[in-house]
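Trying the structure run again after the queue cleared.
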Amino acid sequence: MSDPVILATQQNDPSFEDVWEELVWRGLVHVSTDRAALKELLAGEPITYYCGFDPTAPSLHLGNLVQLLTMRRIQLAGHRPLGLVGGSTGLIGDPRPTAERTLNTKETVAEWVGHLEGQVARFLSGEGENAVRLVNNLDWTGDLTAIDFLRDIGKHYRVGTMLKKDAVASRLNSEAGISYTEFSYQILQGFDYLELYRQYGCVLQTGGSDQWGNLTSGTDLIHRVEGRSVHAIGTPLITNSDGTKFGKSEGNAIWLDAEMCSPYRFYQFWLNTDDADVVHRLKVFTFLSRARIEELAELVEREPFRREAQRVLAHEVTTLVHGADATAAVVAASAALFGQGELGALDPDMLESALRELPNTTTSPNASIAQLLADTGLVASQSEGRRAIAQGGVSLDNVRIDDETATLEGRVPPGGMAVLRRGKKTLAGIFVQ
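Done. Tokens:
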């Protein structure tokens, strides 16, 4: 469920003429249907709009968070959101750029639907006249026969047009090719929009710009079948200033589920944002006002060494996703790890998750500290570890180690954890069996 305290603090910036102008300023409109018509639509009477999330994993990730926050901004303007979790499209998956998706079992997809519905509901208000409504496209496709689907929906699609969609064209030109299953995905997404238009009067869909072909599949279908013009907004793909993919490192996405990405790791991800990227991240991922973001932008230019913008960004987004208590625990853990707080006062789970993000090793209660320095990569060898101890630069749980032959015995009990430090900022985690 959504956190009413956090949702109550969120508002659109009144310095903008309307929500459309704010979306544009925050860099959330990469491509769209008629801009003038969209501006008028969003400034008028409440409309129904939707965004879809496919259960291809047990959690949403940062790319999905862009959509959720875009939906929330539109909801704050008085409009009615539909959060679609794709129980049917999740069984297929939209075409990836290079290879066919691995299809998950129906049982797995059904389980993941439940996870994603809970996450979507957390970021959108369930109160008031424009409360979020969760929908599942399996409800209108589960009993649909192939013949009826081809007769009623497939007849409105032209293969030539479908082949021109970027996702399809790139796969056709690859060695992997594309299956009829993934080729048909755009029809299913178009059908979703049509069904939501018919059931709820939905007239706007949002999604990533890489989904533009699928978004327009729906607008085109509704125009052909119902004779009505509806709209779509494609948000830009978020990349780092150096062009690398945002939110992924060595194949590890930044998930919204705390079990898949700890709050500590989540906070550190934002804290490590590059100066060139931080202002854009503040616009996209926080509800801070334009005036406050401009203040932080000036600090980035004038006093980048303070990293104030990064700290604000990390605090805001971690609180948004994991709550104020988790954020406070993360900040306390970060301070304690670097000698500015009591390690013993930390929540054990938070301490463990923090240490797991550091170089770490699991060892016995009487292990040599010099060897542990080498095992965790803080030094190159045990002999170098002894030299580091002799030079006075090694501590365990913020207590200096003076003896080159010191062990863990009497310092960390079995089942315990400790922070091993070389110098001021080089840390490792020790887990004692």
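Residues 106-123 form the longest helix (18 residues). Worth checking whether this holds up in the mutant runs.
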